[in-house]
Design a protein that fits this description.
By secondary structure, the chain is α/β, with parallel strands linked by helices. Helix content is 35%, strand content 25%. It has 6 helices and 11 strands. The chain has helices at residues 58-67, 69-82, 133-163, 199-211, 220-229, 233-240; strands spanning 14-22, 25-33, 40-44, 47-52, 96-99, 102-110, 115-118, 122-127, 170-173, 180-182, 188-191. The strands form 3 sheets. Strands 1-2-4-3 form a 4-stranded mixed beta sheet, covered by helices on one side. Strands 5-6-8-7 form a 4-stranded mixed beta sheet, covered by helices on one side. Strands 9-11-10 form a 3-stranded mixed beta sheet, with helices on one face.
Length: 249
């Protein structure tokens, strides 16, 4: 399930980077020349993207951007506000880290053995090298991936039992552009950062990918399978966009 909702061009597009001043701000944008009839303007977590036919001049593109200045600036600001500290900037006590949708505070203590546990307020890390941020970070990353595997393995098994006879091959991924994927062989990959999502959003991603075992597309039949697995999925699908920043943290 890819995060970018834009349609993929049928041929490899030509890409370049441009800059324009809007409302007194210098804004960088990606310009993609592609086979299409009109100028398309999109704002996502990674910034402003313009898709335009090859015959459209740069002047016409900039005029189109100027005409939508208010929307572009507002959308960029909204995406910036959606960014959140999902992983600590520094690995020391008090720094925030997101686990199952909640911002917890790191509590790091020296200990002879490594142990990690989460409660309502803290992610407590006991580590022989508590002073070494890189060591602590690696241990927490491994713990999060273990937690993610426990989460997704159980949920995939539960959904698959309802629609398929054979369990799929499931792996964790570290993709920077998608929460999950399912290929024609029925193999499912799920991003380990699902464990940082609110539980119901992670549930939606799992149901989405399992549904692809039946319909390897995004047709009406596919969405019907998702709805059968997880009634009310549409609201969760919309909420997931708010958590895009997790993938690039």
């Amino acid at each position: 399930m890819r995060l970018d909702p834009s349609q993929r061009d049928r041929e490899t597009p030509a890409r370049q980077v441009g800059r324009i001043v809007l409302a007194g701000r210098t804004i960088e944008y990606r310009l993609i020349r592609a086979r299409r009839r009109s100028i398309g303007i999109e704002v996502h977590l990674d910034g402003l993207t313009v898709r335009a036919p090859r015959w459209v001049t740069l002047r016409d593109i900039e005029l189109a951007l100027c005409e939508r200045t208010r929307w572009i600036v507002r959308s960029l600001d909204e995406w910036q506000m959606r960014r959140r500290d999902v992983m600590p900037r520094e690995w020391k006590s008090g720094e925030p880290i997101v686990f199952r949708g909640e911002a917890l505070a790191l509590a790091i203590h020296a200990s002879q053995r490594t142990s990690i546990a989460a409660d309502m307020f803290h992610l407590t890390v006991r580590h022989p090298r508590a002073h070494d941020g890189a060591e602590v970070a690696a241990s927490v990353a491994d713990w999060l991936k273990d937690q993610a595997w426990t989460l997704v393995a159980a949920r995939v098994a539960g959904y698959v039992a309802r629609i398929a006879a054979q369990p799929p091959l499931v792996r964790l991924s570290n993709a920077r552009s998608e929460w999950g994927s399912c290929n024609a062989k029925g193999e499912i990959r799920l991003n380990w950062r699902l464990v940082q999502l609110p539980p119901m959003l992670a549930e939606y991603v799992v149901a989405h990918e399992v549904a692809h075992m039946i319909e390897l597309n995004h047709s009406a039949r596919f969405w019907a399978v998702v709805e059968a697995l997880l009634p009310g999925h549409a609201a969760l699908r919309r909420q997931l966009e708010e958590w895009t920043a997790l993938l690039v943290a």
